Structure formats: C-alpha cells, structure tokens
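Holo model, heme C. Inputs:
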Amino acid sequence: MTFKLLSAAAVITGVMLISSAPTIWAGPVKTDKGALVAGEGAEFDPDEGKWFLESGAPTYHVQDNGKIDFLTYRGFQRYHSECHVCHGPEGVGSTYAPALTDSLKTMSYEDFVAVVASGRIVHQPGGADSVMPALGDNKNVMCYLDGIYVYLKGRSDEVIPRGRPKGKESKPKALGEAEDVCFEG
Ligand code: HEC
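Output:
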C-alpha cells in the first residue's frame, strides 16, 4: 500500500469522526500575482509540486493568461479517463450520475476523497440503486485524485472553461516522482 492510499484512508477516518458542516460556495480568490486559486493562503509546495490552500486542501492555480498548473492539467486528463463515462464530459453530469461541478460548490476536499475511495450506494424508490463505485484500490484514480479534485474545483468555480486547456506549466519534478512512487508502491 502506498503512502497516498494510506493518507486517503486517514482522511476517511477523519470524515467519519467529524460530521462536516456544508460550506457555502466562496468562489475563486485572486493572488497578488493575479492568478486565480480556490481559497485563501495559496502556496506552492516544491516538495510535492502542488499548490495548497491554508486549509490544507490542494488547489488549482490559473495564471491571468489562462495557463494552468500541471496538477490541474493532470486532473483534466485523468477525469476524462476514469470518471467522465458516468459524470459526463468536464464534470457536467449525466442522466446517470450527478454534475460534479455542482457537487464541489459545497463538498469539502475531505468528503470528495472519502466518497471516491469508499463509494456510495443510494437506494432509489422503485428498486434501482444509484451506485458510485469504491475506487480506493484503483491507482489510476488514487494516484491522481488531487489533480482530479483541483480540475473539478476549477470547473465548479468557473475558472476553467469547458474543452481542452489552452496552456499548462511544465511538470514539477517532485510531482512526477510522487506519481512514480504511488504507482510502483
Ligand atoms: C460507474 C459510474 C461511475 C463512475 C465511473 C464514477 N462515478 Fe462518481 N458517482 C456515480 C453515481 C451514480 C453517483 C451518485 C451516487 C448517489 O446517488 O449518491 C456518484 C457520486 C459521486 C460523488 C458524490 C457527488 C455528490 O454530489 O454527493 C463524487 C464526489 C463522485 N461520484 C466522484 C467521482 C470521481 C472523481 C470519479 C472518477 C475517479 C467517479 N466519481 C467515477 C457514478 C460513477
């Protein structure tokens, strides 16, 4: 089991203990360099190659020329290989599964990770179940889940338009290494 999978498990335990109050959609925040991020106190962590908010959640980082950080680009790619068959292109939803662009207006990062890792079954009137599969053992999902989250958060905050991103930053070395460790571990 990799560190990444373990840390997702730790998050799930936390979520079960603390019943999380829904947060009100706050929308994006502009940094003093003019980039858009998902909340207060965004800083780049060179050891992980990701941007984080002071809350500890990862965030997208979109420059004023529209260029996105590599983690967000990675999320765009992985969302469209692992999630879009059910949740629709670019997170807009389908008749079968909810629009994640709506979900992330109120859902916390921790709750997002918990639902993806553990799945969820909701029994519908009439017998058909609504099933979100548990993907916690799927490295193609879990090794990239922060990227999928920040991409969808950027879509939800209306910072990232539909379609293929126009420009991206180069891949931080630390991010590539962490992906390799997650996959091989
Ligand atoms: C096989 C279809 C399927 C796939 C693949 C799938 N989902 Fe889901 N997902 C669902 C369904 C159906 C629900 C609604 C479950 C319910 O009724 O609560 C759901 C619910 C969710 C929710 C909770 C939304 C909310 O508003 O409460 C999140 C978050 C989520 N999925 C994320 C993902 C991510 C991220 C991926 C890709 C890594 C993914 N899902 C892949 C079918 C799928």
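Residues 21 and 144 are 26 Å apart (CA to CA). Residues 3-17 form the longest helix (15 residues).
Archived with the compound record.
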